[in-house]
Amino acid sequence: MNHDNNVTKDLNIGIAGLGNVGEGVINLLQENSELIEKKLQKKITIKGISAKNKGKQRNCNIDSYTWYENPLELARSKEIDVFIELIGGEDGIALEVTQTAIESGKHVITANKAMIANHGNFLIELAEKNKTLLLFEAAVAGGIPIVKLLKESLSSNSITKIYGILNGTCNYILSSMENNSIGFDASLKEAQRLGYAEADPSFDVGGFDAAHKLSILSSLAFGTTIDFSSIHIEGIEKISLDDIQAAKENGYKIRLLGISEKKLSGIRQYVEPCLVSDKSLISSIDGVNNAIVVDGNFVGEITISGLGAGSNPTASSVVADIFDVANNSTVSNLGMPIHRMKDFKITEEVIDNNQYYIRMLLPNIAGSIANVTKSMADHNISLSAINQRSDGKNNTNDYASVTIVTDVTTNISVNKVLDQIAKNGQVKGLPTIIKIQQT
Prior knowledge:
Elements: H1 3-8, E1 11-16, H2 20-31, H3 33-40, E2 44-50, H4 71-76, E3 82-85, H5 92-103, E4 107-110, H6 113-129, E5 134-135, H7 146-153, E6 159-165, H8 168-180, H9 184-193, H10 202-205, H11 208-222, E7 232-233, H12 241-249, E8 252-263, E9 266-277, E10 289-296, E11 300-307, H13 311-326, E12 353-363, H14 368-378, E13 383-389, E14 399-406, E15 409-410, H15 411-423, E16 428-436
Parallel strand pairs: 1-2, 1-3, 3-4, 4-5, 7-9, 9-16
Antiparallel strand pairs: 6-8, 6-10, 8-9, 10-11, 12-14, 12-15, 12-16, 13-14
Helix pairs in contact: 2-13, 5-6, 6-11, 8-9, 14-15
């Protein structure tokens, strides 16, 4: 078929998985069908749908679509050009239907970050072999078009760093603790009540969801294969109201950040809570919003923010990928062909120069703080602030909560001091250490 005919050929799609995002995609295609047809000069037609339960009450009308009990049959169907995987899960049926659709010569669109993070290299190689597209704008940061930005708009820039707020659940919990002066558990319960957090929230609050997204962003930014396994991951479970309030007193807010930076010896990816200046743009991102900062050598620093999850924003990204297929995009799935991408190389640089925030429980006796400050001085760490907090719930007659903000030092020096303090039996439990991110 020649290119001209292909431009006007209608596009037939199949959707597997009718949760929030699947419903959103159907509603968007129905509601904006006239606008979409005008822009594309072709119709997008849903030729088949599949989900676990046909009779379930849904927020969309599916009566006119052919129902497939088995999503694998939909993936193979000659009726469709594009297969949309919205089932979720890193392997199992989601991986099976994606592989089947690609091998059947279909373009695939997915919102499944866990699958792309763990099997993306294999699936993209398979798609390139079958001359099909595997598109995943909806897998990272909901409605924010970060994948397209990196693949196309910023493709000529050499990128040195990409970081941001990649999980709306964590961001809601932290900003709610901050704004409402409530603890982690109360804020998490509220997030669950509002539907922002799952009944088992460990995937989100443990940092794994953000790490899946970061591994995809690193690949797009640096032209390397996806490497989820090398990400250092810390969640937000240990962040207390004490930490939030101490950060505030020192001019900071706490945010869970995914950070990937290119050094001479390789790339470093990590997800962890960080203190960010309350004057920075990233600190103003509240609630379930996401924000991503990209540093390119010609464009400088760009920040893009918006709704990072939810039915409608994520559906918008799925349909953006449908547009790319309809417009016969020739952009590679990861911005360049996978055989041209470098293998992921982890940086050998382990020394990290930063300011650090430290909270510890010290015996409530004369000289406790002096012993800590002496240990700090012995390791050439100077202090920017030190404060004994008397209103935290961790304070008892025996112990006091002490918060410290260091000047710029190394992670190695901080760890040596904390080891020394622990050996001397001066501290109760494990101290909380949070890096101060320069934003």
